[in-house]
């Protein structure tokens, strides 16, 4: 073991011991976390509205304070916090949500519900990001040891930061983090270094950044210990681009040059500083690429990065549809799931890196926020006397972390250090077990209904399952679904679901027609089944869009401030611009006729 490795092992042990301590006493730590949040912020306008002006925090013990908080502060959603956040964005520096003025706002991806939302970002946000990265890395290195001093091929991207009317810095949370001191600390102190310099990450044009990430990844290929991105989508995008760009990349490797497609002067300078001519590496990569081209790029990553130990990224939830392609590129390499969090707060860490994306759980970190869990039951639950009936689920009363039950599904509610109070995140999770006293969560889906025509209610997860079933029929061909989205077409009579697929490779019309019928038959929601049988929902339509359509959708979102690092393809849309892109790019239509 080198000196660096010994030091890193010491740090790993230190953070693991810390976490084991807080996990052991998770319930108590939560009560203390809430007390700390209230102590810091009880004089804010939001909390005084609910807790009164005379609260003396020191007079109450933590448990009494917890009861007071739960009984006085109502459950809320983003819309309840929005007027306060808007005033902050407009320059109001009075204590509205937090005692300390907020100087930075994050844009949550918004691609999940179509509208970017501002969320406060504070020093705590980047500190907790660094902390969860260190913790996750410590558990990972127990299972997949990596060489100190190696490199990471990291497909990460900042988006543009801008100023709000009141002069606050706004941008995505990942962008703020990449610009923070904590990120610099991580870059200096982790065992391995990112192949790309900061100028590539912050270059602002994701295509140019991807080219440079790939080129530098190849230049340092022998040293790369693992390949990573925030969401798996970025890795799949990068290697899809690689299939098109490899010859140009080899030319640059050979000559120590940089393609003119990279126009940003800062990025050019920083990349050129890392490159020198390497004809033998270029020939080697070229030879491997010719072979890979013949095998449809299967096992691309281990073949070109022979020392890589694993791929690390968020692969669960809305990233699941990219898993098949990721596995294809990854070959025998392990896929390790990255942690669970949101712009609002980090939530859980993956303590078992060997778990597959299908089995992975995230253990709640009880110091990051105060977490509550709203039990959710399907609408056919018999005893629903004490439950609130909502559109999609029956809801019980919110429970603290210490009272959740294994096997039960919940919606997560957050009270954060950044000024969100009893904030419904909209994610549905299931408790899979406990690590000491901390619940281990499986991510189930975003709660929001995405497709509904009348009494039917289909979620993102329902759609994902249906597309998965439909696209299985493509396995008899050489075609695959690259990406998909959907729309509830209410202008049609009767209304119907429209699913858009971008397909790579050739598939006969007969097969696509069968895919369309399979999807229509696979929606399991009772409302959908009944409505289809009675004809109050029309036949599902599958529309095939031309190659590059989802690239245009990505560009549209990036143009509106989204970041490549946090991008999630919207799985259902009512957005006029998107629908115009999709309709203009539709090349084939199939309708499922017979039903039931
Ligand atoms: P954002 O809106 O960009 O802050 O994205 C946060 C959302 O991404 C979360 O609320 C989840 O729905 C999803 N997400 C984040 N991490 C994971 C994960 N590890 N697995 C599944 N979904 C995740």
From TrEMBL:
Keyword vocabulary terms for this entry: Ligase
Domain GH3 middle residues, every copy: 362-446
GO cellular component term of the entry, any: cytoplasm
GO molecular function: acid-amino acid ligase activity
The keyword Plastid belongs to this UniProt entry's keyword annotation: no
Domain GH3 C-terminal: 462-576
Protein name from the UniProt record: Indole-3-acetic acid-amido synthetase GH3.10 isoform X2
